Amino acid sequence: MERRNFISAAGSLGVLLLGSKSVSATSADDHQPPDAGQQTQEYAALSKEEVAALKAGKGAVFGGLAKPAELNGYPGPRHTLDLSDELNLTDEQEAEIKYLFDDMQSEARLLGKRYLTFERLIEGGFEKGTLTEERLESLLTKSGDFYGELRNTHLKYHFQTKKVLTEEQVDKYNEIRGYTNDGHDGQSHDGHDGQSTYAGQQTREYAALSKEEVAALKAGKGTVFGGLAKPAELNGYPGPRHVLHVSDELNLTDEQEAEIECLFDDMQSEARPLGKEYLEVERQIEDGYEEGTLTEEKLESLLTKSGNFYGELRNTHLKYHFRAKKILTEEQVDKYNEIRGYTNDGHDGDQKQNH
User: Fold this and answer.
1) 46/307: higher pLDDT
2) What is the DSSP string of 89-148?
3) d(CA 68, CA 66)
4) How far is Cα 265 from Cα 248, in angstroms, rounded to an integer?
5) In 10 A of CB 254, how many CB atoms?
6) Confidence bin at 220 (pLDDT 50/70/90)
7) Alpha-carbon span 59 to 127, nearest angstrom
8) Cβ-based burial of 258 (10 A; exposed 0-12, middle 13-18, buried ≥19)
9) Which are the contacts of 246, defined by CB distance < 8 A and separation ≥ 6?
């Protein structure tokens, strides 16, 4: 079996071709990710701020739930109310948008709490070692459903808010928020006056996704949505790619390395088409907003598909962490966690790449 070698290339990732295989290259000293320390969070896959936002019904999770609308000329009810004076809202408009905002919050809080319930079940299963692949897939299907419903809740109320405003008010909103390309320089995004933290992102290929996230989805990587496999990675279930990166430190046998390589290749071959399908749905959503052809019914249908692909993508990455652990010894898993910085013994690795 020809072993993979992982090398550094001027401090950045390279690609090393061995026969028909290609793998990411990295220095043997660069193994600790920014995830290190997050194993102590209430939810490994979510920051404290994201958990609070989900419980409060806010859209500031998963990179911004309503970006495809917000960045394509469909104002959000909360920020419209924040800018009521600048937009010269009438009393009737303000009352109607307040009603939309209250409804959105009510729906989103319930869905956010349900999403967290299933996230707790997923993480609890990994923590206790009681999870099966069948149970994992079932939980992630429900998680994906709630992800799609959460996005739909926020996006549809942007859709409805635009109908309440005049064309001039929408244009003014976009100018204040920094979504025009006229050099407008707003203040910091404090919820009342000024430019959104999203300003400038309206020019991206996918408003809701960074260039790096798009590339990762196409390549079958898990470095999107905050880290697709964090509930496993941070609870003692090593990922096949990173296991191969530290194969020497873990003293993998030839048989172990061959098995892990097969897992890695299978994971990539499953994740790539799912990532591309997710992007295709995202493209349809954004095109619909850009062209003004989207209906609420079509939006809901597309977001249901988006949620399905989200759940399948997470399942693909998480199940291969599940399988990788079965190939390793207990000592190798402990060593992996130490190298990656997931122990609480003060180990200080060299911080490098995202999980």
Assistant:
1) 307
2) --HHHHHHHHHHHHHHHHHHHHHHHHHHHHHHHHHHHHHHT---HHHHHHHHHHHHHHHH
3) 6
4) 20
5) 9
6) very high
7) 28
8) middle
9) 28, 31, 336, 339
Question: Could you tell me the CA-to-CA distances from 243 to 58, 321, 325, 336 in Å, in that order?
Answer: 37, 10, 10, 7
Q: How far apart are CA 216 and CA 332, in angstroms?
A: 28
Spans of all domains in the chain = 31-340
pLDDT, mean of residues 326-331:
97
Q: Which of 78, 24, 30, 42 is nearest to 219 (CA)?
A: 24
Distance CA(334)–CA(108), nearest Å, equals: 39
Q: What end-to-end distance do the CA atoms of the chain give, in Å?
A: 27
CA distance 158 to 164: 10
Task: Tell me the HSE value of 11 on the side-chain side, using a 13 A CA sphere.
Answer: 3
Strand 21-25 to strand 14-18: parallel, antiparallel, or no bridges (unpaired)? Answer: antiparallel
pTM for the full model?
0.81
- CB-based contacts of 86: which residues, under 8 Å, 6+ apart? 172, 176, 193
pLDDT surpasses 60 at 44: yes
CB of 186 closer than 8 Å to CB of 177: yes
* Coil, helix or strand at residue 166: coil
Check: CB of residue 241 under 8 Å from CB of residue 24.
yes
Number of residues that make up the chain: 355
18 pLDDT band (50/70/90 cuts)? very low
Residue 213: CA count within 13 A, CB half-sphere: 17
